[in-house]
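fwd from M.: "can u put these together and see what the complex looks like"

so here's what she sent:
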Amino acid sequence: MTAPDDEPAEVALSAADVVAGYLPGVDIVNGCSVEVGVGELVGIIGPNGAGKSTLVKAIFGLVPVRRGRVELRGRDITNQAADQLVAAGVGYVPQNNNVFPSLTVAENLEMGLYLRTRALAERTAFVGELFPVLGARRTQRAGSLSGGERQMVAMGRALMMDPTVLLLDEPSAGLSPRFQSEVFSRVRSVNDAGVSILMVEQNARRCLQVCDRAYVLDQGRNAYTGPGRSLLDDPKVVELYLGTLAQA
Amino acid sequence: MADADADLVAERAALAEAERTIAPGSAARAARDVLAEVEPEPGVAKPDPILVVEGMRRSFGGLTAVDVDHLEVQRGAITALIGPNGAGKSTLFNLLTGFDRPDHGNWSFDGRPLVGLRTHQIARLGLVRSFQLTKALARLTVLDNMKLAGQDQAGERLLPALARPRWRAQEAAIEGRADALLERFQLSAMRSQLAGTLSGGQRKLLDMARALMTEPRLVCLDEPMAGVNPALTQSLLHHVTGLRDDGTTVLFVEHDIDVVMEISDWVVVLGEGRVIAEGPPHTVAKDPQVIEAYLGVADEENVG
Ligand SMILES: Nc1ncnc2c1ncn2[C@@H]1O[C@H](COP(=O)(O)OP(=O)(O)OP(=O)(O)O)[C@@H](O)[C@H]1O
Ligand SMILES: Nc1ncnc2c1ncn2[C@@H]1O[C@H](COP(=O)(O)OP(=O)(O)OP(=O)(O)O)[C@@H](O)[C@H]1O
Ligand SMILES: [Mg+2]
Ligand SMILES: [Mg+2]
């Protein structure tokens, strides 16, 4: 997946020295750079409030980029509106409020199809296979789903559009261990099928295990970068960001 | 790539060091020893239950979300409630704390029946919960959210003897407690920020901190660590065991099995609304039925 010497041959998505924030004069993301090679699976981990979600939102045109540059396959997309990015094949699963609560499960999924309505049957089958439980809940209002079921709808919706680049903000949050394993291995297989993926995770160990490369963000800046496995072995990263619970 | 600031490294390292020095308290051993005598089977009676649930059912249309014949929660212990997505864990919390009504069933807290009581009445008896999807008021500041959570309880204990100077002292006490908790949950810097502008993990932290404002006797935490970064999770676990050591009973839902194994004295497994297993953590983790329904195949290390 990764080219031998770090630098991927072709870049699917890049954010260079991005500065972004919500309130005037308050920069949350403070000169961050991330890159996703074509076909690469890249993770972002870091403390709560580090600016991970803000960075992803800035890439997706939902938070203004104040400085720096975002590119999609070499094309400048800095501050481009989200709907244009969706049309260009970028999928996004937000961390919060990621389903339409008053719509049914089926309607939520259809919303994700965007312009490609002819692919409905094929995509629905694909997502149905990924999350079989959703099939039984097609007519339930998404707002009454359990936490984990919502997460599956949100992820399913992004996959409906058959994206080429996928931005995932904590896809495994709220899922049972069994489904977590499944989501990570499905993320991996979606990636193996050619989709370039940037994934924020608090389930940091698992994230580093599946990712080709990962970034640690802290206080709006890049703190560490490297292949997932080497970050897992870095005692500083373990101490500061992973904790030692799972090692016991 | 630039390294993290030296200060930051030092600060986090100090935190990690502090964690390591806290040894498991004697209350932990006490709770575990008492529960070690209890048979690990669904619905089993406990020596000193603070919460007893009897024949509790809740369905939505054709779906029975909760169907608990009998369940007891041991006083002074940390009990984990685990089970697949959609098993009915959050619904059970809703029922216990008056946020939803069962179709039928009884439950009692410290011997007092709770049927028909409202949320705030239940909270005032000392049974409080946090939410899986956070319920902090987005347009209030973090501190005001905390104070609001604290006031309910102050009202109950002190209202009868309410004199103005005393009320001021109470206000100060509430604010002091709020600040101490915010510090513990690494939210001090966000004190005056609107809750709606917190990051996902910060919102979870605020929700848990809010539940603790009232010094509950039984606190129900719905996935308190989901979305909280692993290093902070580890230090918050010590806070949870500290609560238990100070006499608070803790019932919590959690999908992170490492967290469950680390801090629980007892584990209850829910499957399709029913209690399918319960027992000490290591007994439950070996139960084939639990592995099948919940944990999935043991492929921890081979996801890639
Ligand atoms: N709408 C907003 N207005 C103002 N500040 C905000 C807003 N959203 C987030 N922030 C602040 O920006 C900082 C970074 O938030 P962000 O959501 O990017 O963090 P994160 O790294 O995704 O954290 P988590 O792991 O908890 O999800 C936080 O301190 C947060 O309080
Ligand atoms: N108002 C409702 N209408 C219809 N179905 C509902 C309603 N509330 C909950 N359910 C269903 O009841 C089941 C139990 O939901 P609950 O939220 O208790 O699950 P949970 O065990 O907390 O799951 P998770 O781990 O995903 O949070 C789910 O299948 C859910 O879709
Ligand atoms: Mg986030
Ligand atoms: Mg739930």
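replying to her w this: Residues A 146-147; B 89-90, 132 surround magnesium ion (ligand 4) (CB under 6 Å).
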